[in-house]
Each structure stands twice: as structure tokens, then as C-alpha cells.
Amino acid sequence: MKGVEYKGLSSVDGPIVVVKRSEDVSYNEIVYVRDKFGEKKTGRVIDLNTETAVVQIFGSTTGLDLNDTTVEFLDEPMELRVGEGLLGRIFNGLGEPIDGLPPIVSSTKIDVNGMPINPYARVYPRDFIQTGISSIDGMNTLIRGQKLPIFSGNGLPHNKLAAQIIRQAKIRNSDEQFVMVFAGMGIKYDQAQFFIKSFEESGVLSKVVMFQSLADSPSIERIITPRCALTAAEYLAYEKNMHVLVVMTDMTNYCEALREISTTRGEVPGRKGYPGYLYSNLAELYERAGKIKGATGSITQIPILSMPNDDISHPIPDLTGYITEGQIVLDRELSQKGVYPPVSGLPSLSRLMKDGIGDGMTREDHSAVSSQLFAAYSKVKSIRNLAAIIGEEELGKEDRMYLRFGDALEGQFFTQGEYENRSIEETLDLGWKLLKILPQNELYRIKPELIEKYMPKD
User: Fold this and answer.
1) Secondary structure (DSSP) of 368-390
2) Which parts of the sequence belong to the ATPase F1/V1/A1 complex alpha/beta subunit nucleotide-binding domain (predicted)?
């Protein structure tokens, strides 16, 4: 019978407690655990067998006594209260307000353990999102409904880049409302304040919903934070017909919390100690982005993850790359040269770019310019390697042109101000200006009529 409190625990291990189960406990059900002084802690059921239920506590288990602790099963999953007042609010990782304002007044509560979108119900993403950042718009275009992660490293400006995307992202030639949901997992207090201050100063805070699980919050809370954020995004997109951009940082902290729980539960570890279900767990989150048949709204996702030791083959970026449609990779070498944003030209990729650019969407020359910039930059890299061996003075005239082009691409196209918002036309015109450095016979990926039309004459 629900509402009855069960007294006593079988065991306590870190954030995990094991209790004798009642008859009809269900997976992901919310539980109230009270210590002998009556202080309430919230948890959820993460595992069941015939005799016991394993409960994960959101917070510290210090002070829980095996004999005097009581457990109440609530017969309901973790839910997020949503309503009209959602935008402009700041919540903790469990969806509780932390901005000094009262809780949302609404009778609508949604289960945070949402389902990935059914592939049959998906609409193929085709609409271009202008972020105002040349290295993304020009060469790794973001499409509405896409999952495009940012692979970064410790100390690289991924938070600055994420804030800039949130400030500047817009749908071209459309007055449809574009709102943001931000989820911070295990981020430091100063990072959280940076995001709030950045949104306040640019006036976009009223269009942002923030969920913050800070570094000093229980790591277990990080498991719920992205689920709360995506639940809010689904409500805004599919109930309120808005276009939503979800930024989640840092997915590495989320995966660390998952590993911590898995180890505590004594599960057999997979690669580097992460649980074997890391792939399916990440897919559960990433696959909640997209466009659905019959719905006006959409969800676009930008998960940010810091690669441990800048290792792109680490399980977290590796598995993320399998699930998402490309990646924006930040490069430490470019950052050390003073390039911002240090988006690495060659490993970065947007798999949906080809379907969201061109005549009527961006400009007819977009695909050709992007392809030629990639090809030329690839050649720059190999010429730089050669120059490091034989010396730059031994290179031919054409090779030296390529080196000049490479420096100009990094210094002018990749580099832009933190508050510089370039239109796609400005980005493409800048691309043409840089391609003029190269001999025309080297522009083999662009049709002559496009060269004639767009190449600057002076």
C-alpha cells in the first residue's frame, strides 16, 4: 500500500541505499527517505529484485541509520512542473527554483524520464540556423533539429563559445520564436555566474531556461539535470510550438557521475571503467532532439564535452560521435595562437550541412566555398609539415601562397570577436576574399560561373 513508510535499510553504500521492497514498486519511482530526526531526502529507484529495491539518494546519505531510517515509496516518477512562467527562470539540477522567485504555478507535471523520438515520427532537419560564427556557419553548419556536440579540452573556451551561440543563434528569414534551455552539470560557481551575467547583459535571459547542478552539488544530481532540461525543452517545443536550442555542459561530468553509480552498484565495468550501457544512456538523451511530424516546434541540441587529455578516442567523445550528426572540435594549438573560437578546421564536421545550405536557404555558392576552404586548408596542413622538415625558404611559390592562405584563414575567418555576429553573407564573402590569395586554377571545387559572380574583382 502506497503512503506507508517502511522502517529500516538493508545497507548504505555512498549515495546508494538498499531497502526491503514493497509489493508494487516500479523502476524510476520517487522515494522519500527520512533519518531518525525526520529530515527528508529524495531518491529514486534505480534497480529492483524480488526482495529489495536499490534507491539512489539525491544528496548525502550521512546520518542514515540502518534501523531507524524510514522509506516511503510515492508511486510516481520524477516529474518537472512546467507552465507559462518557465522562460527566464533558473533551477537547480532537480528542477527546484534557485533564483529567489516562487515555484511555477501550474498543474502540469511531466515525467522527466522522457522517451527518445520514434524514428518513424521524425521529420528530416533542413532549416539553417545562423550562429553568427564563421567557422560554424561557413564550414560546419548547424541545422534546426540537429544534434551537434562541441568536443573541447580543459581550459579551452567552450563555455564562451556556447554563450555566444545562445546569444546570437537565429532562424533566417523567419519571425518564429527561438528560445534556449541551458543545462550545467558539475560546473563551477564562476562558470554558472558567467552564463547568467552573459545572458542578462545581452537581454536574452528572458528567453532562456537554466538548470544548474554546480560542482559542489551531489554528483548524483547530474544524472537528473539533463533530463529536467530536455523535459522543459519538449514542453516548449511540442506544447508551446517554439523552436528550442538545448545546450548541455559538461557531458563528461554527467558520464563521471554515471560511472560513480555503476561502481557503487558493483556492476561489471566497460572501457575505462564506464558502465557498458554508457552508449544507450547517452543515446537516451541525444535522441530526444529533432523535429516531429505534425509539430511546429523543434529541439536542436549542442552537448559540450571536455575530452580527458584532449583524447578524441576516449569513450565519451567516441560514443557521442556515433550518436550525433557531426561534431565541432576545439583545437588547443589554435587557442595558443590566440584564435577565438579555436574551431579545428579538419576534424570538425556537420553531417546534415549539405541539406540545409544552398540557394533559398543560405546562398548558392555556400557548398562550393565550404568544400574549397576545407580542401585548401587540408593542403596547408601538409605543406606546414613539409616546411618543418626542409624549411620554408625551400618551398615553391605556390606552396608559399598556401601558407599565406592558411595564416589568413586562421587569422581572419576562424578568428572573430566574442560579440561579433557575422551574417552568412559576410562569412561567405570573407571566404571568397581569402580564396583570392590562391591561384585560380587551384579552385577546382568551384564552378567557373560562381568564381565569375562572387570572386572580388579588386
Assistant:
1) HHHHHHHHHHHHHHHHHHHHHHH
2) 132-350
